Amino acid sequence: MKHLICSVLFSIVFSSGPFLQAQESYLFIPAGKLAEIRRGIQSRGSHHQQAFQTMKERVEMKDLRKAYPTGMNKYETCFRAREAAMMALLSQAAERERYADMAFEACQKVLRNGDPSPSRGYGLARSILGMNIAITYNWMQDIWSPSQKAEVLKGIQRALDAWPSYSHANFGSTRGSNWVGVCRGGELVMMVAVNEQEKRSRRFEMLKSHLKQHMQNGYGDKGVSQEGSGYSGYAGQFLLPAVYAAAESGDRSLLDMARKIEWWKLVMFTRSFHPRGAGEGDTKLLQFGVDVRGPDEGWSSLIIPLVPQQQLPYYLWWYDRFTGVHFKPLQDHKGFDAHRAGTTWALLHYPSNVRPQDPTGKMEKILVDKHGYAFFRNRWRDENDIQFMSAGDSHHHSHAWDQPDNLAIRLLANKTSYIAGPGKERASQKNPTTDMYSSLLVKGRFPLSKNTGMTGKLETVEPSPMGGYTIADGGSLYRNMGVSSAKRHCFVLMAHPDTNIGLISTLDQVEGASGKTLVWQANTGAPQSNAGVEESSGTESGRPFFLLKGNNNGYVKGWVLHPADASIKAADPLKIESASQDGRIWVVMMVGTGNPPQARISGQGLNSSWNVGSVTLGYDQGQNRILRR
Known about the structure:
By secondary structure, this protein is of the alpha+beta class. It folds into three domains: 1-19 and 29-121, no CATH class; 262-359, no CATH class; 366-395 and 402-628, Beta-galactosidase, Chain A, domain 5. It has 17 helices and 21 strands. It has helices spanning 2-13, 33-41, 47-60, 64-67, 73-90, 93-112, 123-139, 146-162, 178-193, 201-218, 229-248, 253-258, 263-270, 299-302, 312-322, 343-349, 475-479, and strands at 366-369, 373-377, 387-391, 409-413, 416-419, 440-442, 457-464, 467-473, 485-494, 502-511, 518-522, 534-540, 543-549, 554-562, 567-569, 574-578, 584-593, 600-602, 609-612, 615-620, 625-628. Strands 7-8-9-10-17-14-13-12 form an eight-stranded antiparallel beta sheet. Strands 1-2-3-4-5 form a five-stranded antiparallel beta sheet, with helices on one face. A hairpin with a 2-residue loop joins strand 4 (409-413) and strand 5 (416-419). Helix 5 runs antiparallel to helix 6 (93-112) and helix 9 runs antiparallel to helix 10. The protein is elongated. It starts with a helix and ends with a strand.
């Protein structure tokens, strides 16, 4: 029935008069692209057909807040404008004028109720309004009447005149903040959309310079930002359109820089297939920096042109399950990067001639970014996939969101965020709680707000076919807490994808810890609201253990091999407290579903041996490594 309805719909949309033929080439839309998309829309069950249907349903909805759930009417109105403009370009005469008028009325509403000039309010908001209206203007230039074009162009030019006088602390010289990507990127797109880059050439060159610095300073080689991958997507909805617009205007230097950053790999390792909607706070991700949960802003569709051709089939496999044709639930206009009109990018950038391929077994299970982060993923199949992170956090720029991720770990599996981070919450002198950090505490603290610029490093990375091994150094952050050094080993072993079992072992080594209580801590709840996560503890083979039960019958069971007298507080946060004078805490965790296993543990201290089934772990002091024996 659904396919029958779609067939009738498309026969109406695509058979009632000629398509627009005047130029068929616009900003972000090369000649021939619209014809290619139209052919895709008529292919039953295709990405383009389903993305088009999703966007049409949203554009036709009268309730803006249901269609574009941002909670800000002006945002919702400008997103309606951009998507209605795309509908006009893709429709024949019978529908074209109606969608064009809808786009104009949305732009007019924004312009008459507070234009997108940054002098009239919040810079980030004004960039959202201005960029979307400018793209709409560019796409409608062959359809709108002269008076319609003049009215909208006047508002865009007014905003462009105002941007040079707007300033903010986050535009600081390091350019690391998402504010740079958002404001500078949005302004550049506006300029190119109305073809004023030559008229405003000095400003245009400045914008490109700032965006180059933003990419150079703000992101690691895999796209890690100190603000978190969610903020990369937030800035990216402006940054990448600016990169592409600059290239179309004749300067490919920004595009060349962007192609060196593998953002596409980062989203594959950090975004889960957890079923979700498209509203604010719905995306499930392997959180770090100040991320909690957030919408993907069209980011996953915008990245597609940056993916190398030989890797594109793997990315599209991930994309289809994250937001595309295999998205769950693919209904209620939620898929295809629906948030913030991202479906326009899904239609423009998704290739129609590349067949997706499962990356499991084709890509390594570990991704390492030079900013001091290692990400692990056992497969790309469904919401039960196991995703883990260990971090040294070697990068910091001022005037940008930051959160100390030194020795931090994160764990997402079986539709549950078992180990999360603090998001934007921060301990301070007045509020000394550290409960939201998942790291190693010294004397019960980690850290005070003044410590956030103190970095560590990921000093050792040893990939393996089934996972890998990392050693993170806590750096100046831990030295500031009164120890001479602090290091965290992470041993990761992923079983066959069909079994979906993960084994993660951490070994903390702290020098100068005498007289200082160490706490291995995991934030098992906030800010990743996990209703139904249960914590408990007990003793097994003479060692303390903890058990976390989550969604989909999933569990994380952890045994403390050393010290044997460590105490476990089974709550949120989960705490393993040790007053051992040798400054060592060794934990083994198993991630799986069903009944948690019982382990056989023998030996003492760091000479202990842990066994479940065919897997035995031990520690080799000579090699200073946790090893599978």
